[in-house]
Write a structure and sequence with these properties.
The complex is a heterodimer of chains A (344) and B (334). Chain A is α/β, with parallel strands linked by helices and 344 residues long. Chain A has helices at residues 2-10, 23-31, 51-54, 57-68, 90-95, 106-115, 132-144, 160-165, 177-183, 186-193, 205-218, 240-249, 279-282, 298-302, 326-329, 334-340, and strands at residues 16-22, 42-49, 73-76, 100-102, 121-127, 150-157, 172-176, 197-201, 226-228, 250-257, 261-270. Helices cover 30% and strands 23% of the residues of chain B. The chains are: A alpha/beta (344), B alpha+beta (334). Chain A binds chain B through residues 5, 24, 30-34, 36-37, 104-105, 108, 111, 205, 209, 320-321, 331, 340-342, and chain B through 183-185, 258-259, 309, 312, 314-316, 318-321, 323-324, 326-327.
């Protein structure tokens, strides 16, 4: 650990941009004060790994339509409730009489549907490979219970295509350990073959510092690399069980990311065999295009094109109490981290 | 008597009298609790403190306590924070029609037991019954008065640079308990609320020194919120050492899984104490002899820099800002 600290503090190699992709990494790095340990040659960029932050405006608009027009009970992770849509947020809908329930897991939404047979219940299924298996499990459970009052609105995303889309903004990815625990590391190795370097990192102080040190040792050598610095949890093959579950219920699709636009093949949706649980189909939701606040620079923040503090709204019109951009809403968002940890 | 509370129990007639006699009078009986319109009490010798608090916790029963125990602890502890010995309490109940009388009696019994432990007499009360759906089960409001010994002067404005910051035990247990009781996470953790009346703890501290600047109970918003309040009120900075903040391993585990910060979880039996450094050893010695404060420890110090902010010395030896608490972490925890 001491050695790893010295490496990241005394790094004298070429200027390097490291993108921590995961919202939890962003927060832990701030909480532990790791930026203060880093050599001035190292630039940390907070990437698009917070599921709430990359969920597009039109998804929120659709959830609001379900709650208000179709009188569907929305079950959602708490973070999504305050995310601004084009006109309002789910919190606004709740104040207007919409039924919005906070849940801590997709399976809780199934339990809610069982207990409330008179209500139509829709779970807002956002997240990466870490949370998608739980959504699949919920749908499987609903199917085996024969529920007809449960569905999910999918905005699930997968990381590999996003890594490719963002590769020009970064030199090294700090891969999120939780995601790799599910997916394994084969695609990270493949990305290294294509010239995209990365290190899988865990979440404790030691794990983060060790991963950064591994990256900074390799980078000056000039060859693309991949290092699994979280072998305690991440294996090359990942969780076969979770992968099989996702495969069985879902298939890849194109997906819009807030700030990044549409990334082909970066989304997951329910297969046709489960279409009765797909809220898009069940409620014939129209294609809509959301409207983001034009001054908000969340998109640039997510691509590492600017820091949160460069946005004209940051800390003024946009604060955790009155968020405008999604990166300020979620506790895991980059702007929220910059604001809360007093970076100015 | 019927098994549940009915609107008739709140109408002021025979049923009301029966309810008072069989539940409240039975458990709360003391010479100052009479059938008159108001309690007539001897005035305290010096200064007195007075406070009121409403309790709406959901669920009303939780591991380590219930709304009744909480309603006594909350008010007694608020008085104790001002160094005041709790003397008298009043309590007002708003009960939902259909509430179980057995549960009501359990609540009254815990209130009586906790009041005895705290050395306070319940001298006045009121009962209202609201229609089904107008309240959730039972709401209790307690008001208390206490006597402040000569020479005791605690206030949130009195923290000065150089003071040490103590907590009287591990933090975050009440909030964590309520969360686990309310939500079905499938987490099997043995966590009980720390809910306890703390006048004895404060009395023991005042027994060794009256030179204590601040005492504050870390209820809603937890220790983190209290420290931000104190930093602002006193116009000072507060610097914490992350490694010394006591958190039960089970609470740490639950917080890790759910992404919560124990510093923002409510306590109902823990106090934050700020005192001059030379008093710290005496205070710790006496606190650690108290069953409600045996894990008391120093978690940080008051600094002149960074006024209004709380800074954390991290496990890596760096400093970071403790994020300012925002929004509602958990509604209806007390």
């Amino acid at each position: 650990m001491t050695e790893a600290r010295e490496i990241i503090t005394n790094y004298k190699g070429p200027h390097v941009r490291i993108m921590e992709v995961c919202g939890t990494h962003t927060h832990e790095i701030f909480r532990l004060g790791i930026r203060k340990l880093l050599s001035a040659q190292v630039e940390l960029i907070s990437g698009p790994g917070c599921p709430v932050c990359v969920t597009p405006v039109d998804y929120i608009d659709k959830a609001i339509m379900l709650a208000m027009d179709d009188h569907v009970t929305i079950c959602t992770f708490g973070d999504l409730i305050r995310v601004p849509g084009s006109m309002s947020s789910l919190a606004g809908s709740r104040a207007d009489g919409g039924k919005i329930q906070t849940v801590y897991s997709p399976v809780d939404a199934v339990t809610y549907a069982v207990k409330h047979p008179d209500e139509q219940v829709c779970f807002l299924s956002v997240g990466f490979e870490t949370t998608t298996p739980a959504s699949c499990l919920a749908v499987e459970q609903a199917k085996s219970l024969g529920l007809t009052n449960f569905s999910i609105l999918t905005a699930n995303k997968t990381m590999p295509m996003a890594y490719e889309a963002l590769k020009d903004s970064v030199d090294i990815y700090l891969y999120p350990g939780h995601v790799n625990a599910i997916t394994g590391t084969a695609y990270c190795e493949a990305l290294a073959q294509q010239g995209i370097s990365g290190v899988v990192a865990g979440f404790t102080a030691t794990e983060l510092v060790t991963a950064l040190a591994a990256a900074l040792e390799k980078f000056p050598l000039g060859e693309p690399f991949f290092v699994n610095a979280y072998p305690r949890v991440v294996t090359p093959q990942g969780s076969r069980k979770a992968q099989a579950l996702m495969q069985r219920l879902m298939e890849p699709c194109d997906s819009r990311w807030r700030g990044l636009g549409c990334i082909p093949g970066s989304g997951m949706r329910l297969r046709d065999t489960y279409q009765e649980f797909d809220a898009e189909k069940k409620y014939h939701l129209p294609e809509i295009s959301g409207r983001e606040n034009p001054a908000c620079r969340c998109g640039d923040v997510l691509q590492g094109k600017c820091k949160s503090t460069d946005c004209p709204l940051f800390g003024k019109a946009c604060t955790p109490q009155h968020p405008i951009g999604a990166c300020m809403v979620s506790g895991e968002g980059a702007c929220s981290a910059y604001y809360q940890y007093g970076m100015d | 008597m019927n098994d549940t509370v009915t609107l008739a129990h709140g109408a002021g007639g025979v049923q009301t009298a029966q309810l008072i006699e069989r539940v409240f009078q039975k458990h709360f009986a003391n010479p100052n609790l009479t059938a008159d319109d108001a309690a007539v009490l001897a005035a305290p010798n010096g200064k007195m403190a007075m406070t009121t608090d409403g309790f709406i916790v959901s669920p009303a029963f939780f591991p380590g306590g219930n709304i009744g125990k909480l309603s006594i602890c909350g008010t007694v502890n608020d008085l104790a924070c001002m160094g005041a010995k709790p003397k008298y309490l009043s309590c007002a109940f708003v009960i939902e029609e259909g509430f179980s009388l057995t549960q009501l009696e359990k609540i009254a019994a815990s209130m009586a037991e906790t009041a005895r432990e705290a050395g306070v007499a319940i001298v006045s009360g009121d009962t209202k019954v609201a229609g089904k759906g107008q309240v959730d089960g039972i709401f209790i409001t307690t008001t208390g008065v206490g006597e402040i010994p000569v020479g005791v002067e605690t206030s949130g404005t009195k923290a000065v640079p150089g003071d040490v910051v103590l907590v009287t035990g591990d933090i975050g247990r009440h909030g964590c308990t309520i969360l686990l009781t309310r939500e079905d996470f499938g987490i099997d953790a043995k966590i009980e609320s720390d809910c306890a009346p703390l006048w004895g703890t404060v009395e023991a501290m005042l027994g060794v020194t009256k030179n204590i600047h601040v005492i504050r109970d870390a209820t809603r918003g937890g220790v983190g919120t209290v420290l931000y309040e104190l930093a602002e009120q006193s116009g000072v900075g507060i610097c914490l050492n992350a490694s010394t903040i006591p958190v039960m391993p089970e609470v740490k585990g639950v917080c890790g899984m759910l992404g919560l910060e124990p510093l923002y979880l409510a306590c109902e039996g823990r106090m934050v104490v700020i005192a001059p450094r030379q008093e710290a050893e005496k205070l710790l010695t006496v606190l650690r002899q108290d069953p409600n404060a045996k894990d008391a420890t120093i978690i940080g110090e008051v600094i002149a820099e960074e006024p209004g902010r709380v800074i954390v010395n991290t496990e890596l030896g760096t400093q970071s800002l403790l994020p300012r608490p925002t929004g509602e972490l958990l509604p209806r925890i007390c």
